[in-house]
Each structure stands twice: as C-alpha cells, then as structure tokens.
Amino acid sequence: MNNKIIVGVLLACVSGSVFSKPLQEDSQPISLKLSDNSLKEVNTCEDFIALRLAGKTVTDLPNLPDRFTDMARGSLTNCYLTTYAKDHGLTEIKPASQAPTLKEIVDHFPASAAIAISNEEVAKVKSLYQNKTIRQKEPDLKPDNNGRMVSTKSADGYLISNHRTFKDKDGKIIDFITLGKFVTQGTWGESTTYEILSKSNPVWKIQEINENSPL
C-alpha cells in the first residue's frame, strides 16, 4: 500500500476538522527542515502527517524566532499525538482526568527531565543524578503565585503547560504531560511532552514524546 493510500485511509477515520485546522493560531505555515535536507512548509496536521508517513522526520524549524519555535514544536507534537491515538484505538478523555500535580511531577519525574541548557549540563545530570528525581537535583523548588515551581538557587522553574488523557481498549488510562521549563533570569524556555509509563517506583518511568516519535 503506497503512502498516499495510507494517508487517505488514516484521514478517513479521523475527524476532518482536526486535520484541516491550521497548526498555528495565526494560520501561518510552519517551515520544516527534514531528514533528507529538504525544506517544506506545513499548514495543517494533514500536511505534517503526510510527511511523517512518507518516512520524513524534522531536523530543524528554520526561520522562526526562538520564542516561537517551542510553540510550533508543541503544535506538531499535539498533531502527532492525536494521530497516534486515533491510529492505535485510544480514546481521548475530555475534560482530561485529574493530572498529577506539579509537585508530584518534580517529586517523581526523573532528573533526566530537569532543565539542562547545555551539553555539559546534560552530561552532569547523567553522571550525578542517575535514579534521582527533579526534586533531588533541585531541592529548593517551591511554588510561586503563578502555578509554577521555582528554584532560587538555580534561577529556573517548571510548570504544566498541557495535559492530555487517553483510554485504551482495555480501559487503561494513559497520561501525557507537557512540562514547561524556564529560567527566571533570562528568556530561555522550552516545553517537553512525556508519557507517564509507570508510577510504581519513587522515580516514575516516563517517555519523551515529540514530533518525530514513531507513528
């Protein structure tokens, strides 16, 4: 079955409004640099999924100011997640069931999900905080008046920017949490979406989800 037929079959099973709606609120297309070094513009979820089903992945979002790159990646990730859920028989629960609190997330998410801006910081987390949590890496994290957890010592913080809940055919609940990460003395910030795989241990098992995750 060729890629065009696959796309047609998939889209026939999904509400047209989901796939035809612009990815961005301003309806502007998103420019993508792909794994084959080509440049493509996508305006809708349908456009993006067609590229993914053709075997392409995203390597860069050129020509976007930094402050918009994170929002564009978030739109692509949400598009991916909607497609994956429909294709795997997951039903989204709306409104979403109660999400883990931000305190639970920093207390139980592995330190690998903590803020690490440089490659040196990433390497430090891997070497010093194996089997540790975000809280253990940043013990002074405290709630502020804006629904965030902030560390004075590290001058950074966290927030939950999105939460989507699905139920599989066996009734299992699957939570996807988008964790916003930012610095308090600068403009850097990013969001990462995680699937919570297990809460059976003090350090929860999670898996990062992004626009290039397997369909």
Keywords:
3-stranded antiparallel beta sheet; single chain; alpha+beta; 7 helices; 7-stranded antiparallel beta sheet; 215 residues; globular
Unreliable stretches (pLDDT < 50, length at least 5) are 1-16
Average pLDDT reading: 89
N- to C-terminal separation? 16 Å
- What is the CA-based Rg, rounded? 18 Å
Largest sheet: 7 strands, antiparallel
| DSSP helix fraction | 25-40%
- β-sheet strand percentage: 25-35%
Give the ordered list of helices and strands. Answer: HHEEHEHEHHHEEEEEE
Secondary structure: elements and pairs:
Blueprint (H helix, E strand, L loop, with lengths): L2 H10 L3 H5 L9 E5 L4 E4 L2 H9 L4 E3 L5 H22 L3 E2 L9 H7 L10 H10 L5 H4 L4 E2 L5 E3 L4 E12 L5 E11 L5 E10 L6 E5 L6
Antiparallel strand pairs: 1-2, 1-3, 4-7, 5-6, 6-7, 7-8, 8-9, 9-10
Overview of the molecule:
This protein has seven helices and ten strands. The chain has 215 residues and is of the alpha+beta class. The two termini are 16 Å apart. It is globular. The longest helix is centred in the middle third of the chain and has 22 residues. Helix content is 31%, strand content 27%. The strands form two sheets. Strands 4, 5, 6, 7, 8, 9 and 10 form a seven-stranded antiparallel beta sheet that branches. Strands 2-1-3 form a three-stranded antiparallel beta sheet, covered by helices on one side.
